[in-house]
Design brief:
With 327 residues, the chain is α+β, with helices and mostly antiparallel strands. The protein has 10 helices and 4 strands. A 4-stranded antiparallel sheet has the order 2-3-1-4, with helices on one face.
């Protein structure tokens, strides 16, 4: 038969256990708050980097248009090139429709149409780039900046490089120069198909109109200008490159769980034996985008600081591959 003392001891014991359980949850709560603060810091730093990239991109793009494109009578690609063409055509009939106005007039309706279909952060920062480019272009026009060269080949080569660099800066920061980027992303998200072929055809049509009206020599120089700017973007922006990660770890479950929670790429895991130690390890293989490699390596290190990670460039890849939306 249980006495009152036994009953009291049992009651005290339960209270102690409850207290211990309550205290056990406190560190978890603290960890959650710490994770939240860390995420906010990461978001702030990310936005700061994007804003800085957008500012520098807009400044460089406006300078290149004013100092290289306009003096050499060149035509860039995309909506900016279309705005330049409209400016040139309207000037022939005595009507002024400046390039910086055309950039806004063409991009604002497209941004409004694509607002619900693509990443809104991406749209906002990309439109900030357009507004800043327009502002800087107007400012540089009023300042009457003189071209650094008086040789069209030098203007084409250096102008193409700087123009491509300005676009790469925006892309690296998680934004773009808007225009055709918005259209291609919207169609891709809705249909799963790329329309870059149609966009290329549109650029060719604009070049043909430009050549027919202002001379085929200038059209040819503009094609070279666009080719150099495209190659510059490919040099500095590697979003579409793929890399293979080979992760050797003794904690496959933790690594795979953390990896699968944050990334949607497939992976394979096989058991292996260390050649020197004879210990049991697991080899995880996965194919990712090149811009994700640094973050994935850091993630793996948080789960297994002794993991060995081998990074290989993937030349060809056949099969389904998930790519995060830009922004």
């Amino acid at each position: 038969m249980q006495t009152d003392r036994d009953s009291k001891d049992t009651s005290v014991s339960k209270k102690k256990n409850i207290g211990k359980e309550g205290h056990a949850h406190l560190p978890n709560l603290g960890e959650e708050f710490e994770k939240l603060r860390r995420l906010r810091r990461i978001a702030f730093v990310r936005n700061l980097i994007t804003a800085s990239s957008v500012f520098l991109s807009a400044l460089l793009q406006a300078f290149t248009i004013r100092a290289f494109v306009t003096p050499a009578n060149l035509l860039s690609s995309g909506f900016t090139g279309l705005a330049i063409l409209i400016d040139r055509i309207t000037s022939l009939v005595g009507f002024s429709f400046p390039t910086f106005v055309g950039m806004l007039a063409l991009n604002i309706p497209v941004a409004a149409i694509c607002w619900r279909s693509i990443n809104r952060r991406f749209v906002l920062f990309s439109m900030a780039q357009v507004f800043l480019s327009s502002f800087f272009l107007r400012t540089f026009t009023e300042m009457h900046i003189l071209p650094p060269f008086h040789n069209i080949l030098l203007e084409v080569v250096f102008g193409g490089f700087l123009y491509g660099l300005s676009i790469a800066l925006a892309l690296k920061g998680g934004a773009s120069t808007a225009g055709t980027d918005f259209i291609s992303l919207m169609v891709s998200n809705r249909t799963g198909h790329s329309i870059w072929g149609l966009i290329f055809a549109g650029n060719c049509a604009v070049i043909c109109i430009f050549g027919a009206m202002f001379g085929w020599d200038l059209a040819a120089y503009s094609i070279i200008f666009q080719f150099i700017s495209t190659k510059t973007i490919e040099t500095f922006y590697h979003r579409y490159d793929r890399m293979t990660l080979q992760i050797t770890t003794s904690k496959p479950k933790q690594v795979l769980e953390a990896y699968s929670m944050q990334y949607r790429h497939g992976s394979s895991c096989i058991e292996a034996t260390g050649g020197y130690s004879g210990n049991k390890y697991w080899l995880i293989s996965t194919v990712v985008s090149s811009y994700e490699v640094g973050d994935i390596v850091a993630l793996v290190r948080t789960q297994d600081e002794r993991a060995v990670i081998n990074v290989l460039r993937t030349e060809d890849f056949y099969g389904g591959f998930y790519r995060d939306p830009i922004g």
